[in-house]
Each structure stands twice: as C-alpha cells, then as structure tokens.
Amino acid sequence: MLLEQFPIGPYQNFTYLVADRAGGEGVVIDPSFGIEPVLAAIDRHRLKIRHILVTHRHADHHAGAAEVRARTGARIVAHALAPIGQEVSVQDGEEFRSGPLAVRVIHTPGHTPDSVLYLIEGHVATGDTLFVGECGRVDLPESDPEAMYDSLLHRVLALDDRLIVLPGHDYGPTPTSTIGRERTENYTLKPRSLEEFLQFIRSE
C-alpha cells in the first residue's frame, strides 16, 4: 500500500494520500489549505483518486477538496450531517470500496456533530476526534462534551490496538501512533465516569 502524510496549511493539518500502489487507485483524506504538494504526489504516483474522505465540517479539513475533485474527478465523502455539499453522505458503520481499498465509517460526534473516523487498510484517520496524546476541542458552539465522552471511551477504545492512528493535526510528539499506544499513553482516554470526564474536559 502507498500512504503519504502531508503537513500542510497554516494550522498544522495533516492531509493523507492512500492508494493500493503506485499507478493504482486511492483516496485523499482531509485535503487542507495549500493542497499543491498532494496534487503533485497524485501526478507523480500516477494515481486515480476515487474519493475524498472528509472527517468533519471545519474548513481546514476540506479546503482543498474542490481542487482535488477538479483535478481527479473524485467524489467528496462526509457524514450525512456535514454541511459541506458532499456527493456521498455516509452513516455510522457504513462500509464501501474505493477502488480496491475497503473503507469503514465510525461516527464519533463530540468535536462536531458530523465527526467520523475512517478505517482503511489497517489505519484509522481520526480527524479532530483523536490526536496523538490528546483529543479534539469540545468548547466550540457546535461541540458536545457528552458525545465526545461516548466517542472516545466507547468507540475509539473499542478499536483494534494494532490500528495505526492518522491524526488530523500535527499536535503530538510523533506524527502517527497506534490505538494500543493511545490506550496506554493518552490521558484523555483514561477510564472515567461521564461526570468525571465532563469535569476533566472542562478544566482543560
């Protein structure tokens, strides 16, 4: 499999290019501002991009989507609650194929109502739900701390420890991690009751 991580844009975003092989088919995940290096890599690897996977509504995670779509003809995928004009709306638990790649969707509201994870070939793109050593903000007008508790403690922690975490921002000590490592090292994933989590997250 071909996977490239691009630190682009002014907000330390990560955009991902994933394909079955050079010359094959693939996806772009969370195309941010300054998408030119990703477009160059698509051309360099001679890839057919089938889908653009957007983890949530914030502009820094889909600002480059229109350029990728114009260059490749790929369809934009986002949760049904996302107000970004996507061509494909997905729901929790949905599975689909992007060329030879298998993609599974897990709805993880909290940071935004439409936040999702994409499981793809042993990796999980976590957007702003989970970072390396941290989680996404829940102090925004559209955020929901109680939903984030359920997403982190019941959905993220239910994932296979071997999955490689592809975060939406370069906010941690390393650019990637694993679910197993986050389970043991990420302080936002420590066992807590809902009341304890709400007190903890609001004190951050």
Describe the structure.
The protein is an alpha/beta fold. The chain has one domain: Ribonuclease Z/Hydroxyacylglutathione hydrolase-like (Metallo-beta-lactamase, Chain A, 4-Layer Sandwich), CATH 3.60.15. Helices cover 22% and strands 31% of the residues. It contains 5 helices and 14 strands. The chain has a 6-stranded mixed sheet with strand order 1-2-3-4-5-6, with helices on one face. Strand 9 (116-120) and strand 10 form a beta hairpin. Helix 3 crosses helix 5. The longest helix is centred in the C-terminal third of the chain and has 12 residues, at 145-156. The N and C termini lie far apart (38 Å). 46% of the residues are buried. The mean pLDDT is 98.
Tell me briefly what this model is:
The chain has 5 helices and 14 strands.
Describe the secondary structure blueprint for this structure:
Layout: E1 2-8, E2 13-19, E3 25-29, H1 36-44, E4 48-53, H2 65-72, E5 75-79, E6 88-90, E7 95-98, E8 101-107, E9 116-120, E10 123-127, E11 130-131, E12 134-135, H3 145-156, E13 164-167, E14 177-178, H4 179-185, H5 194-202
Parallel strand pairs: 3-4, 4-5, 5-6, 10-13
Antiparallel strand pairs: 1-2, 2-3, 7-8, 8-9, 9-10, 11-12, 13-14
Helix pairs in contact: 3-5
